Amino acid sequence: MNLEKIPQLKHTNSNNFFLLAGPCAIEGEDMALRIAEKVVSITDKLEIPYIFKGSFRKANRSRIDSFTGIGDEKALKILRKVSETFKVPTVTDIHEASDAALAAEYVDVLQIPAFLVRQTDLVVAAAETGKVVNLKKGQFMSPESMQHAVKKVTDSGNNQVCITDRGTMFGYQDMIVDFRGIPTMKQYAPVILDVTHSLQQPNQSVGVTGGRPEMISTIARAGIATGANGLFIETHFDPANAKSDGANMLDLANLEKLLTDLTAIRKTINQL
Predict the structure, then answer these.
(1) Distance (Å, rounded) from C-alpha 89 to C-alpha 149?
(2) What residues form the membrane-spanning segments (predicted)?
(3) CB 166 within 8 A of CB 116
(4) pLDDT in tens, 189-202
(5) Which parts of the chain fold into alpha helices (H)?
(6) Which of 24, 108, 121, 255 would suit a FRET pair with 94, their CA atoms being 20 to 30 Å apart?
């Protein structure tokens, strides 16, 4: 993947890690713009290449009454407005092959969810749009097996592909990050560490996914130290009341300190 080919991506020559960050789901225009404005301000100061993240629809829900979205077209138009307002690229996840062409009209990066990364039709449909394809490693997959998912994209004529590690299932209700997977998967494509989803505690008996946000800094620091090309962080100004994944999200008020620390670590790594 060539970062310089992503439209409107800034600071690509800073030799810093790149960042995908934003709310789990688009809940409305005001909240999306508020989060984007804050993250853009921080990443411009720290010279971090930044892609705004927001799901236009949530398909993987624990319960039938869980929040899934505000409407596909409405949410996608908000993603476009974020991009136009702040001159940054955007990423959203897709769940069906028919979503690929729809979302590609509005965003710059198409993300394949971890639980769908083996779905060939979905991966190929995303690749054929010509957009950057972000493949999330399945929680049930080894790092080595991700080479085949990458090959589906490149065999479809698209070399703009990256891999995101979001942890591996550990028992029924917890995730672990095996940092050995980062250098392994970097053999196939640039690797992003999904810090916040790696701290989920899924399959809770109450039907709402839990999490350990107090460990965000620990996992993020380890990711940069072990060579991750980028980080994925879901953030919100009111995680307790976020409509999706609030239990593992980073409070937006804590983002600048975290990214400042991570940038310092990255500079040290670059000097080794």
Answers:
(1) 24
(2) none
(3) no
(4) 999 999 999 998 77
(5) 29-46, 72-86, 97-104, 120-128, 146-154, 181-185, 216-225, 255-271
(6) 255
Amino acid letter for position 163: I
Cα R_g (the chain), whole angstroms:
17
Backbone angles phi, psi at 75, to 5 degrees: -70, -40
Contacts of 139 (CB under 8 A, 6+ apart): 114, 115, 166, 167, 168, 169, 175
Within 10 angstroms of residue 129's Cβ, the number of other Cβ atoms is 19
Domain count, the chain: 1
What is the extent of the structural domain holding 192? 3-271
Among residues 152, 196, 241, 178, the alpha carbon closest in space to that of 53 is found at 196
- Residues present in the chain in total: 272
CATH number for the domain that contains residue 117: 3.20.20.70
254-263 pLDDT tens trace = 999 999 999 9
> Higher pLDDT residue, 87 or 272?
87
CA dist., res. 106 & res. 267, Å (int): 34
User: Given a cut of 80, is residue 178 above it in pLDDT?
Assistant: yes
Q: What is the pLDDT of residue 62?
A: 66
Instruction: Give the mean pLDDT of 250-256.
Output: 97
The CA–CA distances, whole Å, from 107 to 77, 80, 83, 228 equal: 9, 7, 8, 24
Reading phi first (left if > 0) and then psi (alpha if -120 to 50, else beta), residue 180 is in alpha
pLDDT at 187 > cutoff 70: yes
Q: What per-residue confidence (pLDDT) applies to 252? A: 98
